[in-house]
Design a protein that fits this description.
This protein is α+β, with helices and mostly antiparallel strands and 240 residues long. It is 17% helix and 13% strand. The strands form 3 sheets. A 4-stranded antiparallel beta sheet has the order 5-6-8-7. Residues 191-217 are annotated as: Disordered.
Length: 240
């Protein structure tokens, strides 16, 4: 079976690597504006561009990589990505029981504080022993230049892969992901251990596994206090 390695001209950084983190996904395809499900959610490693499912038949001889969407951010399954590049020290996340890697850093409302483990590029809090929150933050292009400068082999960063792993046949019955809205109940995003604790409501002395507590875990504390009020006849002060 044929194995491929996509390396740029002169042995430099491959064009697909820069294109993967720079391309726009889940936007309408200009060539298929009138078609349903025309979002660009496939990346052609041969053409270094994003395409939609209607474009895929024209690229049937090229290796194709599926890009997924999670809460307005582009992700790729770790199983797919690590067949192409070195993903060491990039923190994976679990979504719908599958490990994924973010292509770009996610926006942060405010920079992280403290001396915990953070992304070396964007300062997002990470779990140990990871150093990057996304593929873009790892700056693989700089690593390629560094390896070439030292006269070393790029095989430690860029991997050869089987054509069957990225064949067109995987996309013939593809259903476009439409998880652009709120987090689905079945989707879980792994966060650093300290932030998991912050999502839980404060204890109110009752049973910790009550259904009311579970339903209110993401609501403000004022809602929790209202939900835990006891209902009954008002207590009046005795007549003087």
């Amino acid at each position: 079976m044929e194995r491929r390695e996509y390396v740029g001209g002169g042995g430099g950084m491959p064009g697909w690597l820069g294109g993967l983190v720079e391309e726009s996904f889940f936007v309408g395809c200009e060539a298929h504006e009138s078609r349903r499900k025309n979002e660009k959610n496939i990346f052609c490693l041969g053409c270094c561009t994003s395409i939609c499912t209607h474009c895929a038949p024209a690229h049937r001889s090229h290796p194709l990589l599926q890009v997924r969407r999670y809460v307005y951010n582009d992700v790729v399954r770790l199983d797919d990505l690590e067949k192409l590049v070195d993903c060491c020290f990039v923190q994976p996340y679990t979504i719908n029981s599958a490990k994924v890697v973010f292509l770009k850093p996610r926006p942060q409302s405010r920079p992280s504080k403290g001396s915990g483990n953070i992304c070396l590029t964007c300062d997002r809090i990470l779990q140990e022993p990871f150093h990057f929150c996304s593929l873009s933050c790892k700056s693989l292009g700089l690593q390629v230049d560094h390896v070439l400068l030292r006269g070393e082999d790029l095989s430690s960063i860029l991997f050869r892969f089987e054509d069957s792993d990225f064949a067109f046949s995987r996309f013939e019955s593809l259903q476009v992901d439409e998880d652009d809205g709120p987090i689905a109940a079945s989707a879980t995003l792994e966060q650093p251990a300290q932030s998991k604790e912050e999502c839980l409501p404060p204890s109110h002395g009752g049973g910790s596994g009550s259904s009311g507590t579970r339903k209110s875990r993401f609501f403000p504390r004022i809602v929790l206090s209202l939900n835990n009020r006891r209902k009954g006849a008002p207590h009046r002060s005795p007549l003087s």
